[in-house]
Prior knowledge:
Layout: E1 6-7, E2 10-12, E3 35-38, H1 45-52, H2 54-62, E4 69-75, E5 95-100, H3 101-111, E6 119-126, H4 127-130, H5 134-137, E7 150-154, E8 158-162, E9 167-174, E10 177-182, H6 220-225, E11 228-232, E12 237-240, E13 245-250, E14 255-262, H7 276-286, H8 291-306, H9 328-341
Parallel strand pairs: 1-11, 2-3
Antiparallel strand pairs: 3-12, 4-5, 4-6, 6-7, 7-14, 8-13, 9-12, 9-14, 10-11, 10-13
Amino acid sequence: MNTVPAAIDEVIIDEHCDTGQPIGLHDIVGRDRPLVIRGLCRDWPLVKLADQSDTAFARGLAALDNGSEVDALLLPPGEDGIIGYNADFDGFNYEHHRVSITRGLQRLAHYSRQEAAPGLAMQSALISACIPGFLDDHAVPFLDRHLQPRIWIGNKVTTPAHFDEYHNIACVVAGGRRFTLFAPEQARNLYVGPLDFAPTGAAISIARLDRPDDPRYPRLKLALAEAQVAELRPGDAIYIPPMWWHHVESLERINALVNYWWKHTPANGYVPETALGCLMHCILTFKSLPPAERAAWRGLLDHYVFDDSDAASHIPAARRGILGSLTPEQLVELRATIRRYL
């Protein structure tokens, strides 16, 4: 079995060309695989400061800070910087705090001088709320300016494999990050923790990728054999398709990443903010049914949801209901019907 991870597909933005020309949104939406975009954000002012030194970057970022507090996780040194559960699995292995970005940067500077430092991660901070001046000089040319980016800052912290429901472009601003990605079908081999009790809200793999021989997780090697890996430096970016599992390691004493999430909505389609509620409802509804009934419902779900064929082509367009294009009024009525069923 091949256990050497494959490289993620890459494109390179040449330093002599306009970053708006070599790649556009049309090159990304519809991809079913991740894509590394080398040099996409190399001209960002904060990236140039990071190229000078950690101190220059921290000062530049602190100058943009408006003092608003953001979520921060603090992990004891013994946790190896890996976000997860405590030993009893009844809580998490970090303390949650609220700090300003400047205060967090000061703690990172302090920890950088320690041999065995705590892990610190300022997580998913809405840029418009804490460093709004960032938006003036830092942008991805082909992304809608209305997208709200978030910033992630910390030291050597690892977020275990998890998935998002959104298209995601993540830009490394300082330090380095190693991304290990798995296709959606690898979920069964990643030993995912509880859906409704997860660190930072996203269900995570509880198997450590650096311990492939752990006898508790024998299928982990199957996932690792199909993994795709890339290491990104300041100015590089990565596109992660929806539902792909991604394990993210921050490699330096100070790291920063800015990401953009969005959902692609078809012209006549309806896309909810999250489908996790549907997944949980399906588990409650179908998991305990007798095998024959469960198989019958699987057939209906395949027919109406997952098959690409048009299940309503034989029905007059005006009578297709939920199987056709829905008006805003029909959506309201449909939601009310679903609530009655629930």
